[in-house]
Amino acid sequence: MEITSLDTDLATHVSQGTEDATKWNECLSPAVFYLMHYYFFENSSRFSVNVDPTSKEGKIFSQICKFGHLFQAWKTIQIGSGLLANNGINYTRLEWVDEHSASMNTMTREW
C-alpha cells in the first residue's frame, strides 16, 4: 500500500446510475422520458394534433412523471480514487485486489 495524503481528488469516472442496466428501459436516457411526458401533456403540442387539452389530473400526472425522470437524470455514480484506510498513524488508499481484502470490513469484502 502506498501512503497518501488526506487530500481527495475529483471523481475519476462519472456514469449515469439508473438501477439495473440489464433492463431495456434502464439503458435509455431519463431526460428523453422527461421530454416525452412534457410533450404528451403540453397543450400547444396537443392542439397541433387536434387532441383535447390536458385535464387537471393529467397536469398533476405530468408533473409527477417529469420530476421522477429529473431525479433519475441527476443520479450519477462517481468513482474516485478508492477506499481510504488508516492504521491510526497513516492513511492510504486500498485497491480492489485480493491481497487488500483482509484490510476491509466484512460488508466491503463481499463486493
SSE layout:
Blueprint: E1 13-16, H1 30-41, H2 43-48, H3 56-74, E2 76-79, E3 83-86, E4 91-94, H4 106-110
Architecture overview:
This protein folds into two domains: 1-17 and 77-111, no CATH class; 18-74. The protein has four helices and four strands, in the order βαααβββα. The protein has helices at residues 30-41, 43-48, 56-74, 106-110; strands spanning 13-16, 76-79, 83-86, 91-94. The strands form two sheets. Strands 1-2 form a two-stranded antiparallel ribbon. A two-stranded antiparallel ribbon has the order 3-4. Helix 1 (30-41) runs antiparallel to helix 3 (56-74). The chain is rod-shaped and about 70 Å long. The model has no long low-confidence stretch (mean pLDDT 76).
